[in-house]
Amino acid sequence: MRAVWQVLVLGVTGLGYHDMAWAWGPEGHAMVADMAEMHLTARTQAQVVELLRIEGRRHLDAIASWPDAMRASRPETGPWHYVDIPLYAQQYDAWRDCHEDWRGQRVMENTCIVAKLPEFVRQLGDKRLSGTERLLALKWVVHLVADIHQPLHTEDDHDHGGNMVKVVFAGKVSNLHAVWDLGVIEQHYGWQLGPHYHIDRDEVRRAAKDMDARIGQRERESWADAGIPIQADAVAWANASHALACAAYRHLPANPLLSDWNAGYQQYAWPVILQQLQKSSVRLAMVLNQTLGQ
């Protein structure tokens, strides 16, 4: 039941970006998109370019954070970004974890990322839809493949996915969710978001190129579950991300508002986040090639 919290936070002025629940933040989402774009087939790339041209865009990183940017005006989309698997549960259960609207009310329809990602993949591949409709689906696919690999987007411990776990990280008052979204990535690279969540796209692309070069062929093959239906992939990816969530809490000190714990947490969390970003990119490229390369 984190959606109400997130929408309220987004609607309050004067809060810093670390108070906002954006998976990976604009930098992380852009890196995933940049890495995936390097591995699109020629046919897929041509279709992506054609769809992006509708809005005068050229690269996937330009749309990667759009679902977050429009979230305050479309609060009903909030639950699409995550799935609230109880922190200590073993795995995803659709009936338990995927039936809440943005107000936290239980509904009959499936509302979580595990259901919405396959839905948008189907729309992206449906050539009966208009280009504008398929571009919208592309935006969501690029974004949600990254979101589902953020461990705190696949768990809840009665704390709105870590949003209510207050911490001081890198000298800033923040929360556990934001540390995973933004804090660890920005600490590693020495980045800081500019006004209106501006990022240095050239710098981010350079980082993405370096990150992509460190993915071995064996890793690419093991991460890309070619031939498995996207519905099964979404469940498997959510379960794997969820398995990482307990450690995110376990590595916190007793009082993360006072303790000098940042360096140790950074050392633990960055390798986890690095691999999740890499996995996201490999799987995003796979999904786009399977959907648009036919």
What are the SSEs and their pairings?
Elements: H1 3-11, H2 25-37, H3 42-52, H4 66-69, H5 94-97, H6 113-125, H7 131-147, E1 166-169, E2 172-175, H8 176-189, H9 201-213, H10 217-223, H11 230-250, H12 262-292
Antiparallel strand pairs: 1-2
Helix pairs in contact: 2-7, 2-8, 2-9, 2-12, 3-12, 6-7, 6-11, 6-12, 7-12, 8-12, 11-12
Please give a structural write-up.
By secondary structure, the protein is mainly α. It has one domain: P1 Nuclease (Orthogonal Bundle), CATH 1.10.575.10. Helices cover 53% and strands 3% of the residues. The chain has 12 helices and 2 strands; from the N terminus they run αααααααββααααα. The protein has a two-stranded antiparallel sheet with strand order 1-2. β1 and β2 form a beta hairpin. α6 packs antiparallel against α11. The longest helix is centred in the C-terminal third of the chain and has 31 residues. The radius of gyration is 18 Å and the shape is globular. The termini are far apart. The N terminus is likely disordered.
Instruction: Report helical residue fraction.
Output: 40-55%
The count of helical stretches stands at 12
CATH fold-type name: P1 Nuclease
Low-confidence stretches: 3-20
User: How do the SSEs run, as a string of H and E?
Assistant: HHHHHHHEEHHHHH
Strand order, main sheet: write it out. Answer: 1-2
Let me know the number of strands: 2
Strand content: under 5%
Mean pLDDT: 90
The CATH superfamily is identified as P1 Nuclease
Task: Report how far apart the termini are.
Answer: 39 Å
Evaluate the radius of gyration.
18 Å
Named at the architecture level, the CATH assignment is: Orthogonal Bundle
**How does the helix and strand content classify structurally?**
mainly alpha
Number of folding domains? Answer: 1
CATH class: Mainly Alpha
Gross morphology is globular
* Major sheet details: 2 strands, antiparallel
